[in-house]
Amino acid sequence: MIYLRIFFTFLRIGFFGFGGGYAMVPLLRTATVGPHGWLTPPQFLASVALGQITPGPVAITATFVGFKAAGLAGAVVATLGMFLPSVLVIYLLSEFYHRHRHNRYLRGALEGVLPAVVGLIAAVAVGMGDVSINGVVPALLAAVVLLGALRLRSGYALLILGSAAAGALLLR
Amino acid sequence: MGSREEHRAVGHPVPLGELVRTFLWIGTVGFGGGYAVLDLIRTQLVERRRWLTSQQYDHVVSLAEMAPGALTVNVLAGAAYRLGGIGAMLAGTGALILPSFLIIVLCAGLYTAYAGAPVVQGALHGLEAAVVALMLVVAWELSRGIRPQAFQLGVGAVTFGAYLFLNVNPIFLLLAAGVAGAWRGGARR
Lengths: 172, 189
What we know:
Helix content of chain A: over 70%
Structural class of chain B: mainly alpha
Shape of chain B: flat
Largest sheet of chain A: none
Largest interface: A-B, 104 and 103 residues
Radius of gyration of chain A: 18 Å
Number of helices of chain B: 8
Distance between the termini of chain B: 50 Å
Order of helices and strands of chain A: HHHHHHH
Distance between the termini of chain A: 39 Å
Order of helices and strands of chain B: HHHHHHHH
Number of strands of chain A: 0
Number of strands of chain B: 0
Number of helices of chain A: 7
Strand content of chain B: under 5%
Radius of gyration of chain B: 21 Å
Helix content of chain B: over 70%
Oligomer: heterodimer
Number of domains of chain A: 2
């Protein structure tokens, strides 16, 4: 049944999305694009881009994928699957973290996972860039956003909306 | 007596309706996600409403950073749990996600209808370029919290190459990195 498949796909991504919403993009790509996937590569890029222009977490990309796969009900189960692990793990950490925070295996595991997350995010950025940065205008746009985000420490909203507007004017 | 404000901040139950309204508002204006929104959350929960002390908030953030998933969702779920238990956590998380959910469903419907229009194609192409840049920024910001030792550099490089060139499943890569880290942690001392 497609709803169960959607739910468990996103539940798995939710549980392994260490490092925040962007860390889930590589997981989302592997799970949703491909011969048995729900999205084509351009649709996947669009879904991540749409996750950007909404307020709230980038992980809401899951909702878009669910919608494309199975309509409104698909969107609901994808969203539930994506965010349930957060709630569950936060509950467990709130209750048990104090007892285990000095455990050296746990600390070691986290020390190993973080560089892996960075490697994955960088890899998916390079992979996406290879497709979507295909000319002078996208390259300039990416450079402006890169510098802007490193400079303006708070709020990417302007950069995101600005790049959509610039694209609508210059890249059609 | 300055103690009145502190008194409110030490875990007294917050009215559920007020909590849900606050979370709905954060979910409506919190563009960009991640660290960009943490300032907004701190302003709301610590400075304006005084539901948490600064110390309690920092503790919640440190828990949230360890959990998988979107950072803003984790922070607010942790804060809500602290303020009102499991019920508040579920209601608050739902309220936080609802605005984005509705906008995305609307966007997905519009995308399906107008994906072919040149203006939409252009706007999405522009957004994609921005997303690539933002992901590099996120990778950079995260990497600054890592100690530049051979182990960490090696894990980062191997993961990068294995995903980009060999298409290895990222879940497997994360598990392998976690196991290697735990083994290394256990071998120390």
